[in-house]
Amino acid sequence: MASAVPAPSSAVRREPAARRLPRRPSGLGAVFRKELADHLSGHRFAILVGLVVVTGLAAIYVGARTLRDTLTQASESDPFVFLRLFTTGGSSLPPFTFFVEFLGPLLGIALAFDAINGERMRGTLSRLVSQPIHRDAIINGKFLAGLAALAVMVFALGGLVGGLGLVLTGVPPTLEEFLRLVAFLAVTIVYVGFWLSLAILFSTVLRQTVASALASLALWLFFSIFAGLLFGLVADAVAPVTDSQDAMQVLRNARWSLALNRLSPTLLYGEAVETLLNPQVRALGPLLLEQVIGAVPGAPLPLGQSLLLIWPHLTALAAAMLICFMVAYIAFMRQEIRAS
User: Transmembrane region positions (predicted)?
Assistant: First the structure.
C-alpha cells in the first residue's frame, strides 16, 4: 500500500508577510461632540438665540395682527395665507424674514470668530494636536459642530414661530406651505453657514480674536448696509441714465445694478427667501414685454419651479461657504503650531 506523499511546500498555508494594523480613529467624532456641547451650553450662543427668538416672535405677532383683519377675505383669494405671516410686517416692526436676514449672520460669526486663534491664545491648540487626533479633524469638527448647532437653532426657531402663527391665526399650513417653510429653513442654514465659514477663515489667518471678530463684523455691516449704496453708485457710473425716457438706458442700468448686488450674499439670500415664501414671484430682475406675453398675472409657481428659479442663488451661497472653509482648511494645515 503506497504511503502518503507529503504536500508540496507551495501548498502549505502561508502566513501574510505583514498583518494590517487597525486604522487609528481620526478623532473627528470626539472633536465634533465636544464642540457641539460647548456651543449648545455656552452663554454666547444662548444670548444670541434669545435675541433672535424674541425679535422673531414679536415680528410674527405683529404680522398675525396685521393679517387678522383681512384674514377672511385673504383666505378666499390667497391659498398661501400661512406663508404671509413670515413676510408681513407692521408699522412698529419689519417682517420675520428681515430679522433672520439681519441677525442670522451674527450667530455664525459668534460661534466661530475664535475657533482657531482662541485655542492658540489659550495654549490648548498645541495640546490638542499632540493628542491621537488627526490635524484636519480639528478644523473639520469645529466647522461641522457649528453647522449642526445652527441647524438645531434654525429648525427649532422655525417650529416655534410656526406654532405661534398657527395659534394666532388658526389657519394650518398646507403641504405646499410646509415644504416651502422647510426649504426656507434649509436656505437659512446655508446662508448662516457662509458666515460661520467666513469667521473660521478669519480666525485661522488672524492671530488675535478681536481682529477676527472685527473683520467678520465689518464684512457683515458692509454687505447688510453699505453694499447696495456702493453698487448703485458703480452701476450709475458704468451705465448712466441720462434720459429717463430711454428704456434701453434704464434697462442697462438696472441689469448692472442687479449683477453687482448679487455679489452680496445678503441680497442672494433675500431674493431666495422672497421667491420661496411668495409663490407669486415668477421672475427675479427686469423683464421685457415679450417675456411676459401669455403669463397669467398673479398665478403662483409650484415649489419645483420656485426652486429652479433660485437654484443659482443656492449654488452661489453654498459655493461661497465651501470656498471660505477650503481656504481656512489649507491655511490651518500649513500653519506651524508650537508648544506654548
Answer: 45-64, 137-161, 181-202, 214-235, 310-332
Q: Would 77 be classed as within a structural domain?
A: yes
Q: What is the mean pLDDT of residues 268-290?
A: 78
* Residue 78 belongs to a domain: yes
Is residue 109 a contact partner of residue 146, using CB atoms and an 8 Å limit?
no
Q: What pLDDT was estimated at residue 258?
A: 83
CA distance to 125, 126, 129, 132, 189, per residue, from 24 (Å) = 21, 20, 15, 8, 32
pLDDT in tens, 64-82: 777 766 555 545 556 777 8
Residue 151: its pLDDT value, please?
A: 92
Total tally of structural domains belonging to the chain: 1
Q: What are the CB-based long-range contacts (under 8 Å, 24+) for 336-340?
A: 337/120, 337/125, 337/126, 337/129, 338/126, 339/126, 339/130, 340/123, 340/126
Q: Residue 132 gets which letter from DSSP?
A: S
Instruction: Classify residue 170: in a domain, yes or no.
Output: yes
Instruction: Report helix, strand or coil for 36.
Output: helix
Distance CA 24, CA 27 (A): 9
Question: Tens digit of pLDDT for each residue in 10-22?
Answer: 444 554 544 554 5
Alpha-carbon 18 to chain mean position = 48
Q: What is the pTM of this model?
A: 0.85
Q: How far apart are CA 128 and CA 105, in angstroms?
A: 28
Q: Does residue 4 belong to any structural domain of this protein? A: no
Q: What is the DSSP string of 85-121?
A: HHH---SSS--HHHHHHHHHHHHHHHHHTTSSHHHHH
Percent over 70 (pLDDT), the chain: 83
**DSSP 3-state of 24:** coil
Structural domain for 66, as ranges: 27-284+298-334
**Residue 45: other Cβ atoms inside 10 A:** 19
Q: Which three cell numbers stand for residue 177?
A: 406651505
CB atoms within 10 A of CB 83: 23
For 94, 106, 153, the CA distances from 55, given in Å and listed in that order, are 10, 14, 14
